[in-house]
Amino acid sequence: VPRRSVISRCVDRRTVLGGLSVIGIISPAAQLAAAQAAPAVQPPTSWLAGPPEKAVVTNPGNSWALTDRDRQLYYPAWLEGTWDVTARFIDAGFPLGQKIISREVPGVLKGSMLVSLADVGAAMEHPVTWQVRYHRADATPELVTADRVFNVQQEADALLLYPAVRSAEYDPGNPTRLAVVYATPRKGAPPLTPLGSGATTASTPDSSIGSTPGSASGGAQRPAAVESVDLRKAELFVNNRGSTGLPAEGAEQTPQPFTGWELYRQVTQGSRQGLVGDYMQVQRFTPQDVGPSPGAVAVQMRVFAFLQPQDRLYFETGSKAVAVYDYQLQLQRVSPL
Predict the structure, then answer these.
(1) How far separated are the first and last CA of the chain, in Å rounded?
(2) Cα gap 206→220, rounded to integer Å
(3) From the CB of residue 30, how many other CB atoms can be counted at a distance below 10 Å?
(4) What is the pLDDT of residue 270?
(5) How far apart are CA 142 and CA 262, in angstroms?
(6) What is the pLDDT of residue 128?
């Protein structure tokens, strides 16, 4: 099965979507100067406003975090716990035109945006469900952080429609890096066991995949399957992040809309090829009921995909987003812890 998949029964992914990086040695002094000179980036309302084809957004670039707190995206405490997610594809747009779209654009190939949308078109015809979890932050107990290992396994498996994630490693002491090994069907081999056919499903989480809040390492491994697959490793780097709507320290934790975003660089390694992609995920969480612990939350999610400088079309696009994907998520609380 080729990686450039079909996201509907009769329409090629590229048709629908069209409808290693330069590494330098930077001194600590240069990093400090860049951090002091760069203005703080916040998610403007324009990032989520209007149709995706009109969303002309520039890659915010790397953030040289000066403190540990600056290296982590924090969420309000009312999100703590486990949630059932129902996801629906809303739209996709290409602000700079369809001619820019190629396999180098994150989202065109399955797995090229592993932590945001492992398969952009999975929820085009019907909703897809999985779970997400947020736990109390040790360094900042009045806030919570995403359980990255649990969440990437849940979402990727659900969107790819089979138990794809085989292992995940994450160290809370270095919150800017996540390593994931996942499986893709080998060409000519029988299809992988679909979710809901006796395999691990997104609605029944595999206890062998997950992270322990506060542990030195959040890595876990799923037992190897006896399927004919190719294993790929995705190294994910959180290069920037920001939020609006967090309560001030010591303020009352009344649920209010919250917007958080992260910029990812994904370096995917395969047996014969590698792929580097930058994409930015923006999510706006809106509580759907009153009270200190809402039971339902609506999430507007928009993901921006960017080209790399070595791409042949980069000089036409610069650092502007070339593809924009919109999803709507509905969160229903499962447990508060």
Answers:
(1) 40
(2) 11
(3) 12
(4) 72
(5) 21
(6) 98
**Residue 311: Cβ within 10 Å count:** 17
Residue 270: helix, strand or coil by DSSP? coil
How many CB atoms are located within 10 Å of the residue 287 CB?
Answer: 21
Maximum distance among all alpha carbons in the chain? 59
Identify which has the larger pLDDT, 56 or 88: 88
Q: Do the beta carbons of residue 156 and residue 114 sit within 8 Å?
A: yes
Instruction: Report yes or no: 192 and 229 within 8 Å, Cβ to Cβ.
Output: yes
- Smallest Cα–Cα separation from 63: which of 305, 268, 314, 242? 242
Q: H-helix or E-strand containing 333?
A: strand 323-335
Task: Give every CB contact of residue 1 below 8 A, 6+ residues apart in sequence.
Answer: 184, 185, 187, 191
Amino acid identity of residue 252, one-letter, is: E
Alpha-helical segments (H) within the chain: 13-18, 28-37, 148-160, 314-317
Do 160 and 119 meet the contact criterion of CB atoms below 8 Å apart?
Answer: yes
Tokens of 154: 């849940």
pLDDT for the residue numbered 214: 39
Pair of tokens at residue 205:
């989480």
pLDDT surpasses 60 at 69: yes
For 212-249, write each residue's pLDDT tens digit. Answer: 443 334 555 554 445 688 899 999 999 999 999 988 77
Distance, in Å, from the CA atom of 191 to the CA atom of 14, rounded to the nearest integer, reads: 22
Nearest in space to 232 (alpha carbons), one of 267, 266, 183, 280: 183
In this structure, the number of other CB atoms found within 10 A of the CB of residue 54 comes to 11
Confidence of residue 39 (pLDDT cuts 50, 70, 90): very low
The tens digit of pLDDT for each residue in 283-299 reads 999 999 877 788 999 99
